[in-house]
What does this fold into?
Amino acid sequence: MECQLICTQCGKRYAFGEPRLRCDGCREPLEAIYGALRAEVKDQGSILRRFKAFYPFGEVSETMSLGEGATPLIPSSVLGRRWGIDALYFKDETQNPTWSFKDRGTFCGIQYAISLGYERIGTVSTGNMAASVAAYGAKAGLATFILVSAGIPAEKIKPIAVYGPHLIRVEGDYHELYDESLRAGDRHGIYFINSDAPFRVEGSKTIAFEICEQLHFQVPDYVIIPVSSGGNFRGILKGFEEFKSAGLINGIPKLIAVQAEGCAPIAEAFERRREKVRRVRNPKTIARAIENPYPPSGNQVLRKLKENGGLALTVSDEEILDAQNLMGQEGIFGQPAACAPLAATKRLISNGYLKPRDRIVLVITGAGLKVPSSLNHLDVPVISTSIGGLTEAIGKVIEGPC
Ligand SMILES: [Zn+2]
It folds into this structure.
């Protein structure tokens, strides 16, 4: 299929084979565009094979798959009823190979890199994306460069190092590292699958595709997404738009972008009706996975929110931790960033924005076990007993407090 890259702001076009992440004129992110899309979905294979009609790859290399995507859409059985919402769903991205949504974009980005003949890949990240790129780089047998900032503690590096990438600690400003990585990549033939690289964004489309399938092509009213760089948000929206243009669905859900109060460049710009994000000084939130002080796709998220009629808002760390506990009651353990959508949902129900008949999907982006320290505040209600007292202790629990 014919594919070009187009600047999301000025519309300048680049060839498919130009491995760019950003427009050389306005420095805004690029995205992939296609001609007419065929409404064709296959039953079997990896996400890229199943949705091949929406990708420009001639042949998908299935040997590079670790089983990404095809995550469940879990209907709420506790909170929806408690809050009077008929149709509340969790798109559980914690069930990906490296326990976050990033695996979809990494798998797609690697297909692109390989289609252009790259033998080296990389990324700038200290969290979910670093682990994902390191894992897929190992699986594909590619030299993999993971750039991390100098201050990162060993406990965060080890779950990345286990996949055997080249880990490079870089002193200096983390945001400048994004641009510098692209220069180093040009020089050394490394394709950097950074946060909003066009084919990482393309991978996120499959979240929307699967939601449509799982709801039998009845589009939800709202999809609520934690937003950091903006790449995943863009990909999910693009997925719905492409399914609509292929005639598979009739409408597009409203998208709600959720950020943490301590780092909310997109939500702040949205509330003040500004067209550009401003860099946040001294970001601080427990939801580190969405702590991006100057999101590279921030301006594009603002443009798309306006067009989509969606919303951006912030939630506090306290609300996020409360939501983490609430989600545990549904049997799902999300990392703090992944709980931001539930925190936002609770607020938007209480203020009347979300209504009982709305169909709402929350994207649970990453697993709770990645950030065990987020549970430090919990009081653990453990009952202690001797072996001889066990039967009686259980009996007391069943009878309940007198
Ligand atoms: Zn441009």
